[in-house]
Amino acid sequence: MPDDERATASEEACFEAGIKLGALYHQFVGTPVTESSVESLEDAIRQAVESQRYVVEAEVEIQGVEHNRFGYDELKGTMLDVSVVVEKDGVVVETSIADEDGYPMMRLDSIESHETG
């Protein structure tokens, strides 16, 4: 790609943030969960996301766990209340996943740039 067509630092930071949310969603949705395992699953998801490059902070809450006839539920995207902060090349991006009218909506919440040059 020619230098004049390269992505900006803001675009790259947003891309990284999107990758983190997509990976989290597709890695963990479908995981069996019970009321007693919610806290450990939240912690596992948070640690997995925070271990990725450029992630500054992650917060994870799981809401709406119910029992099926086998005594557990499967994690659904609509159960996730997640925020992830990514910093790359002086750009801080805040993203989230939350239930919106029965759909797990991924959002770009804010971009703060400290780019130089």
Tell me about this structure.
- It is a single chain.
- The mean pLDDT is 93.
- It is built from 2 helices and 6 strands, in the order αβαβββββ.
- With 117 residues, the protein is of the alpha+beta class.
- Helix content is 28%, strand content 36%.
- It is elongated and about 60 Å long.
- The longest helix has 20 residues, at 9-28.
- The protein has one domain (6-113): Pantoate--beta-alanine Ligase, Chain: A,domain 2.
- The strands form 2 sheets. It has a 4-stranded antiparallel sheet. A two-stranded antiparallel ribbon has the order 1-3.
SSE arrangement:
Layout: H1 9-28, E1 32-33, H2 38-50, E2 55-62, E3 73-74, E4 80-88, E5 91-100, E6 103-113
Antiparallel strand pairs: 1-3, 2-4, 4-5, 5-6
Short account of what is shown:
The protein has 117 residues and is an alpha+beta fold.
The top-level CATH class is: Alpha Beta
**Class by alpha and beta content:** alpha+beta
Low-confidence stretches: none
Helix proportion: 25-40%
Number of strands: 6
Shape: elongated
On the 0-100 scale, what is the average pLDDT? 93
SSE string, helices as H and strands as E: HEHEEEEE
Largest beta-sheet details: 4 strands, antiparallel
Jot down its keywords:
alpha+beta, 117 residues, Pantoate--beta-alanine Ligase, Chain: A,domain 2, 6 strands, elongated, two-stranded antiparallel sheet, 4-stranded antiparallel beta sheet
